[in-house]
Amino acid sequence: MSQLRPLMLDVVPGIRQTAALALGNLADLSDFMAEAMVKEDILPPLVHFLTEENRFHKKAAAFVLRAVSKHSPELSQAVVASGGVDALVLCLDEFDPGVREATAWALCNIAQHNTSLSQSVVDAGAVPLLVLCLVEPEIALKRIAASTLSNICKHTPELAQIAVDCGAIAHLAQMILDPDAKLKRQVFSALSQISKHSVSLAEMVVEAEVFPAAMATLRDPDQVVRKNVTALMRELVKHTPELAQLIVNCGGVAEVIDFLGKCRGSPRLPGIMMLGYVAAHSEVLAMAVIISKGVSQLAQVLCEETEHHIRAAAAWSIGQIGHHTPEHANAVATANVLPKLLELYMDASSSEDLQDKSKKALKSILQKLTYLPGLEPFLSNAPSNILKHVLHAFSKVLPNDSQARRLFVTSGGLKKVQEMNAEPGSLLQEHINAINSCFPEEIVRYYSPGYSEALLEKLENYQPS
């Protein structure tokens, strides 16, 4: 570093440029290298490079600042403190598209870290110039401009609103069907970062007629494009039932379910959560997810995935689908997903979040469930805090269904209930008593533990007349 710094002040322009490129490559390698540059006070000469007329010097300097700022908020703050952001924003107005691309990339890396750094980029006047970059013919410049806007918008509603006020949504919406996959990735990322903050911002994205046109990209060959479209849909549907209904009417639920069946791992996460947000709003929307075979797809996710956070999201979404009415809960139960939720809840290796979401989903579904074959497996291995909900469901159905009472006896359900150890006066004991009251006393005694021994004892003591 100490040897390269003087070369940046050399009288030969080519030497200055080559020294800057060498520093950029070093800074790109590790945060250790980048920190060494800051300590060697190399940033001020780089910022000076950005004010020169030589476009190659400007690109080289922007490359170094980009490499330094990508590693941490602290290093990005050092770039800001050296006057780097103001100098970079001035370069966004350059004629040469390569200079604008290099400077936008540096600003992108600065803005990604936190609200304060994004605010410094905005305060320097970058947003209007970045929006103008979206209409340039160079694809690479469009990509990095969209990516920078995405990083600015993701932090707060206020920052997103600034981008919207500069016309970002309209320009982004015009590129959703662009043939370039990398550009579409950034476009949908930026739109989702804008949409996530508030209902009003989400509605502005919808009003730009992004849908139903964006539905075509859910079949794009590029998986990241499909993931980012799904993420945009997730951010839209979470706000209101009306926005969720709009996506359902466009065929969004069926397309997302199809996408979930064709990918694995983290790309599934936005789609899983999108289904949960849709279902959470109303019974009708939850039924739309069921009709599109969303429950069976989420059950498949629970079985196929190994990452706990993905399974936790699937468990949460299943709970949102099944908690509305007995019809919804029964649809979940017939997909045979409840035993898997119980397994994940009881598995000691499951993360705390996965256990919590599995338990909440089970409880909310069991409280509505009337499909008794889906309940009976829980009689054998469910813990008491789940078992009380299972017995409560039985106690609601059995009094009004003679066929269910007969099946409950012949399947061994009544016998299992009599074998349970419940504390007197507990909620579990109350549910057991309610179930027992649905059957004649002699049948309850017959299936009670020790009844056969009592009969044999009576036989031994019996004296024929």
Rg, rounded, reads 31 Å
Mean pLDDT score, rounded?
85
Low-pLDDT regions: none
Largest sheet: none
Q: Could you state the oligomeric state of the chains shown?
A: single chain
Q: Give the N-terminus to C-terminus distance in angstroms.
A: 113 Å
CATH-defined fold name of the domain at 239-364:
Leucine-rich Repeat Variant
Kindly provide the name of the CATH class of the domain at 239-364. Mainly Alpha
CATH architectural arrangement of the domain at 239-364: Alpha Horseshoe
Q: How many β-strand runs?
A: 0
What sort of overall outline do the alpha carbons produce when their principal axes are compared? elongated
Would you identify the CATH H-level superfamily of the domain at 239-364? Leucine-rich Repeat Variant
Enumerate how many helices there are, as a single number.
33
- Give the class from helix and strand content and strand pairing: mainly alpha
What share of the residues lie within helices? over 70%
Percent range for β-strand residues: under 5%
Considering the chains and any ligands shown, give keywords for the structure.
33 helices, single chain, Leucine-rich Repeat Variant, 465 residues, mainly alpha
Summarize the structure.
This is Sperm associated antigen 6. With 465 residues, the protein is mainly alpha-helical.
Outline the structure in words.
The chain is mainly α. Among the domains are: 126 residues, Leucine-rich Repeat Variant (Alpha Horseshoe), CATH 1.25.10.10; 81 residues, no CATH class. 72% of the residues lie in helices and 0% in strands. It contains 33 helices and no strands. Helix 2 packs across helix 3. The longest helix has 17 residues. The chain is elongated. The mean pLDDT is 85.
